[in-house]
Every structure is written in structure tokens, then in C-alpha cells.
Amino acid sequence: MTTTGKVTNRDFYRSLPKIELHRHLEGSLRLSTMLEIARLHQLELPYHDVEKFRSLVQVVDGEPYTFQNFLAKFNTLRHFYQSPEAIQRVTYEAIEDAAADNIRYLELRFTPVALTRIKGFSLDEAMDWVIESVENASARYHIQVRLIASVNRHESVDLAEEVIQLAVDRLNRGILAIDLAGNEADFPGEEFAPLFNEAKQAGLHTTIHAGEWGGPDRIELAITTLGADRIGHGVRVLEDESITKLTRQTQTAFEVCPTSNQQSGAVSEIEKHPLPRMIDAGLLVTVNTDDPGISQIELSHEYQVCIQHLGISWPELKELILNAGRASFLPAAEKDALLISVSTELGAYIPR
Question: What is the pLDDT of residues 165-215, one digit of tens each?
Fold first, then answer.
């Protein structure tokens, strides 16, 4: 395809082949689906007032851009996993929405504990429900999807150990990595190091949320102690030259999420986002949504933000897309096939 329209046209960004490495299932729910679940199960939420309801589960105008406010959305979101059917539905819709945005490869992370806590479902059953739904949706919409099992810093090591063992047991069913998420400012996470090292030995890759609300020292901890293959966010890496050098030397990939980084208070203004400087510093950077449902965005929006607000050039954007393929956790042969396919398609785009 050759486009003759301006790069500012959203349709252009939607048409691009995309790769995403950092998207949370629990932050990808449709508002319409949540309203339906709330009515069906008569949840104690203001589902008769859509805008009041929206403010509980999405970032809206006028709210403070802080990590406390951002994370508070997940406290409400946990109430929608009321049945196996609800969990499978929101999973299926997350894949459907990604495919509609022309995402060709998606690594979707999900938090089994979040899916099970309200109704007391077993962790293994919930993981199987997600896997089954991903298999069905990816086949229906012709999108390649792999899963990352996520655990939270503020929860117990024993609970994380259970999730990680269940993930290892499902290595041949689409789970290929584990993630450590949550409030890094108060919970650095070094106590999870033995577990994460064992997980890597068992064949799982690792990605760690770091350098978002905590300083660059959290990135160093993630790489040197927790064995991170990739860093979730990492926008504070440039605050320490020695850690910037470490990530450059190790070619540790960064899963950057511009809009989320602003809404969560990690950056003060979108125009001040460090993504361009991270590129200039020679870091391996990718662009992602984080929580498209909470942020009311899609990956097309983030690509447009890169061009229109961050001054990223078209050649740089293409490289960011391909970086996601290079940093994916796919086996080498599948990764090469993905890169060839997406690179060939991107070569046909000539924005003007």
C-alpha cells in the first residue's frame, strides 16, 4: 500500500502492521462489556450513570495523573471477573480489538490472581480459560498471540511461585514469559529473584516493570538481580548514565507506553516524554499501549503520538515497530518470519 494522505490521518496509523509487547488483559476491557457485566451481576457500581461508571475504570479528563489514581482503576476492574464466561469474553474481546487495530503479533500479559480473587476461582482454571479464549480468538481473527503471566510485587512470594509453576506447566500452550508488576516505588521486588531465576532455567522469559515510578536503580535491580530480558516502561533510565550504559550494552529492550506514562504520572507532559532521547541514546525501544481500556486508546493512537507530539520521524517509527519484533519472546524462526513479513509491508508505505 502506498498512502498519499498526510501522516496526521488516523486511518494511516490504523493501516500499519503492528507488533505489541506490553498490553495488560485486565486493562483492556471494553466499557460496554463492563456495563453489561455490572448489570447482569447487579454489582454495587453506578452502572446507571455511564460517566460516573467510566471514571471508576478509565482515566477521564480532570483526574490527577498519579500512579495511585491509575492503579486504583484495577481495584474496580477486579469485580468484573464474575464467571468463567466473563473471563473468556473479556479475553476474546481483547484479541478482537487488537486485530481490529492491525496488530499482527501481540504478547498479552495477564494476572491470574486478579482474575480469581473476587470469586475464588482456582488459578489453574483461570489460566486455562484465558489460554482457550486466546486460541479461539487468534484463530478467528488471524493474529499471532502469546501470553505472559504476571505477578504483583505487593503480593507474596509463595503466590508468585504458584503462578510461575503453572506458567511453566503451560509453556507448550502459548505462555512464554513472566512479568513482575505493581508499585515499584514501595516494593522493589528483590525477594522474587530466586523464583525468576528458576523460571528462566525452566524456559520462561522475564519482563519487569521498572523505572516507571521508581528511579533508575530499579532498572538496574531488574537486570542484575531479577534477570530481566525486557523492561516494562523504564522511562527514568536516562537519569543515570551508568545504568543507561548497562542497558545499551546488554541491549535490554524497553516497553515504552507514552500515554500511560503521562496518565500514571511517570512523565509530566506528553511532549516531555523521554522516548526520543532514549532512541538518541542508542537504547532498544518499543512502543505499546499498556492498558488501552483504561487509557481509552489503541496502538494506532500511540504511533500517532510518536509522530505528532514527540517528533519521531517516519523512519524512526518503522524502526520502533521492528524493534518490537526483535525484542519479542518468539523462537528465532518465528521471530524471523514475523520481521520479514512486517518489514516487507512497512516498505510499501510512503507517507507524505
Answer: 999 999 999 999 999 999 888 899 999 999 999 999 999 999 999 999 899
Tell me what the mean pLDDT of segment 126-136 comes to.
Answer: 98
Sign of CA dihedral 29, 35, 36, 38: positive
What span, in angstroms and rounded, lies between the C-alpha atoms of 94 and 100? 10
Task: Say whether 96 is catalytic.
Answer: no
Helices then strands, each counted (H, E), the chain: 17, 8
Q: Which residues are CB-contacts of 344 (< 8 A; sequence separation ≥ 6)? A: none
Q: Which of 107, 184, 212, 255 is catalytic?
A: 212
Strand partners, 231: 208, 254
- Per-domain residue ranges of the chain: 10-346
Say if strands 205-210 and 230-233 run parallel, antiparallel, or are unpaired: parallel
Is the CATH code 3.40.50.2300 the one for domain 10-346?
Answer: no
- The pTM is what? 0.95
Each residue's pLDDT tens digit, 70-121: 999 999 999 999 999 999 999 999 999 999 999 999 999 999 999 999 999 9
Residue with cell 457500581: 45
